[in-house]
Structure prediction request, 256 residues.
Amino acid sequence: MKISIITPSFNSQKSIAQTIESVLAQDFHDIEYIIIDGGSTDGTKNIVQSYGDKISRFVCEPDNGIYDAMNKGIRLASGDIVGILNSDDFYAYTDVIKDVVAAFESDADIGIVYGDLLYVDAKDTNKTVRVWRSGEYKSGLFESGWHPPHPSFFVRKSIYDKYGTFNTSFKIAADYELMLRLMHKRSVKAAYIPKVFVKMRTGGASNGSIFGIVKANIECLNAWKINGLGIRPLIFFRKPISKIKQLFEGKKWPQK
Prediction:
């Protein structure tokens, strides 16, 4: 079984090498690694090109934002499974892909595999800030504000072909809309692996400021509306509460 990993990037010279190294370090033989860059003006392009043919496909051109870049990567992907790893994230251990593929291979009906995520300090990635434990999915959990962390979210390519990719009208929460559409609306069978797949630096568009958090939550509400699922106003309050719990757990997490 072949897996395609897609990294969207833009002016990511400070972090992309760690992202790339975490993919190349994976103990799995059949990985197609695709990097879609939005036309970086810093040293990102040179860093990516320094890896030569270890990068399966490198596209560097202007795009319409991160979700447009992700869609470009999905269109290019030839793997049976697609995973997306942003340019400031990195895999937490070397058997992530092996564990993901094993889960897909265990049941042909599984269309999604996901795990857990650690938010780490942007400068000191050994310092854990938040812990996102996904837990097993049960029908109705999205109504309580639940969703898995997108960097830990792997999907069969056939599911994208059937139900579509990212809705680029969403600027912050297209990943949430995609997961809502696939898991809640379309009931694609999902498997949870209780391991930390990814470490994510804090400071992203959806979690770097109060404005970003509010905007992301408004887009999440709109995701319900465009999918014909009505509007769930309580989600606006439940999602931030879950993040507070993650912060408390982050303080208890062993620090290296």
